[in-house]
Amino acid sequence: MADAAGRLTKLAEEVLGAPLPVRIRAWDHSESGPPGAPALVFRSRRALRHLLFKPGELGLARAWVAGDLDVDGDLYAALDGLAEMIWERGPEDQAKPQRAAVLRALARPEIRSAARELLSLAGAPLPPRPPAEEAPKSHGPLHTLRRDKQAISHHYDVGNDFYELVLGPSMVYSCAYWESPDSTLEEAQRDKLDLICRKLDLKEGERLLDVGCGWGSMVLHAAEHYGVRAVGVTLSEEQAAYARKRVADAGLTDRIEIRVQDYRLVKDGPYDAISSIGMAEHVGRARYAEYAADLFDLLKPGGRLLNHQIARRPMADEDSYSVDEFIDRYVFPDGELAPVGQTVGALEDAGFEVRDVEAIREHYALTLRQWVANLERHWDRATHLTTPGRARVWRLYMAASALSFERNRIGVNQVLAVRTPEGGASGMPLRAREWRS
Predict the structure, then answer these.
(1) 132, 387 in Cβ contact below 8 A?
(2) For residues 18 and 115, what is the distance between their CA atoms, to the nearest angstrom?
């Protein structure tokens, strides 16, 4: 069959019910679609086989990670245009994959006929092997100690040198805080860490617990600038080794301890303050009440918690929520997002008094675009340090996430909560947003 691009375009538009916003370029050098638009490049027949044998997001992800599917042109423009095709808005304004519409279209005889032609065009009758970067599908109870450690290792133990390229000198893997879009990434990350220290009202000699401490940036900033004694816990062996070296190089081994430890096994409270920055997304709905209760018990009366967490939009039927397949199999296995209202409710149920919620959604879009730029700038080095497939995973998920924050599909919030004593003296200033500087 000649003109593979034309056939691919025709089928896609018939299934989705609208013109494609991108061009299609196929392995036979044929091209179809709107002039000047970014091109979705099918580099081989194997890309089509990924899609035919696993229709939807996971098939697309496998083709992309394997290098059989690519984008020529502006990646953000391509993803933004395709998102309008792939996602639909329900009555509750919740973005959902158009799986139902696709399944209805595939039931039509003319579409089934075209699909059979494409199956013939795709070549080999067997499905391609998933890329090595794909995490195997897990079974059994979610968020056990062992399973959480495996999930964290999949995402974080891919090489500290790789993360240095992406994150830059700050080595902070969470949303920065931009005083201005013209700030540097390092300035914005420093400002985020300092804002958290001020919200926690850290003072010299106090004990700080940083849950999910990453490469140690938060505990280092708090010890260096606020004189605290800090404990950072992570499940990643590679992160812990890197953080310990940074602590030793800074001459702060007497003030900072880095542990490879699950937060559920921390028993040496009370702490004066707890920071949890970009970690609670790994906790899961089934364990969130336990997470909130454990942190409450680890704080002294009057102690503060700063919970910095990505949030999704609420759904009319919360039981229908599921993690998208690309993120679950390639990025954050077993990660789950919750609406900010659920997070606040769980903290209150544990006994916390929630005193401030700051939404910083746009800040994460700026942060992610900087990370993508870092990765693209050092692409050859990044693929050498890890694998081409892993680098492609990071480029796709960070670019797509930036657009999700920009389009209000997801958000991120800093929730400040206090273990207020029975007498009611929270220790909070009357005008909390004027954080001490």
Answers:
(1) yes
(2) 18
Using CA atoms, how far residue 200 sits from 222, 241, 243, 296, 303, in Å, is 10, 27, 22, 15, 8
The residues, ordered by sequence, that sit 6+ positions from 263 with a Cβ below 8 Å of its Cβ are 211, 212, 233, 279, 291, 294, 295
Could you tell me if 26 and 48 are in contact, meaning their C-beta atoms sit under 8 angstroms apart?
Answer: no
Environment class of 209 (CB within 10 Å of its CB; exposed 0-12, middle 13-18, buried 19+): buried
| Separation between Cα atoms, residue 232 and residue 262, nearest integer Å | 11
DSSP string over 398-426: HHHHHHHHHTTSEEEEEEEEE---TT---
21-66: pLDDT as tens digits? 999 999 999 999 999 999 999 999 999 899 888 877 888 999 999 9
Structure tokens at 143: 């968020």
Residue found by looking up tokens 């494609």 in the block: 20
The model's pTM is: 0.91
Q: Which two tokens stand for residue 276?
A: 């949890």
- Predicted confidence (pLDDT) per residue in 135-171, tens digit: 887 666 766 777 767 766 766 667 899 999 999 999 9
